[in-house]
Amino acid sequence: MLTSLRDEDRAPVQARPGPARLMREVFAVAVRRCFAGRDPRDVTPYVRGLLQRRDVRTDGVTARELEAVIRSVLGDADLVAGIPDERRVGMMIMVVGDLAQGAVADGAINDAELLEALVAQAETRVARFDPPADGRPWRRSAVR
Amino acid sequence: MTALAFLRATATNTVAPEPPGEHADEMFAAAFRAAVKLRFRTDAPLAAVTGSVRAATRRHGELVPVREAEMLIRSALGEQVPIAEIDRSSTVRTHVLLFAALVEELALTDDELDELLAGL
Description:
The structure holds 2 protein chains of 2 kinds. By secondary structure, chain A is mainly α. The radius of gyration of chain A is 15 Å and the shape is globular. In chain A, helix 2 (about 15-35) crosses helix 5 (about 85-105) and helix 2 (about 15-35) crosses helix 6. Chain A has helices at about 1-5, 15-35, 45-55, 60-70, 85-105, 110-130. The radius of gyration of chain B is 13 Å and the shape is globular. Helix content of chain B is about 65%, strand content about 0%. The interface between A and B is medium-sized, with 20 and 19 residues.
């Protein structure tokens, strides 16, 4: 998971249910800590800036999908209809990496600590709200 | 004229007398913009916009392209939003189906609907 986030490489989480579930939770934690309580319209200029930093077209389908993926964890879950899972995970990794870089640039924490903290909080949330069906306690080792 | 008749039929849930014709797109776009401006203030909460798109989806299902529809509404309200790379089919479906949905939300009478269409 941490490798995926550091390297923006979705291979370690791709098509594996445990890591993909955890990645969605890391994404939800990161996005909500940045955008919860704000006007959802704030997501639009954030996406524009993110794509500009990556030299990607800012006014087309990628921008719409990226905004939809972000707002899907802010209460607009139906906006992501039709976006393939693999593409969603790739966008989630990109957004978490970008938000983490922004937080690190603000000071106070280094990126390794921040990503560790995000993953730890996501693990707690998965364990709390979505334990395995067989009743085993959920552990980090279960998704490695 | 056939484009207006098509819009009226869609908004009143009746059968259109004939196809809208090949050059109806501009009329559809104008009707959509007029209905959007009637339905929303420019500072309307985003939740109101997504609510209207959701209502259109409940009625017309996957025919409504949800992301494109929301962005086209926000663009009609003057926001800078990503509306490039939307194909003609999605654009026309949004304009026609959202026009009907917004007219429904406004609870326009048939006379008011005719007045709206006549003003295009």
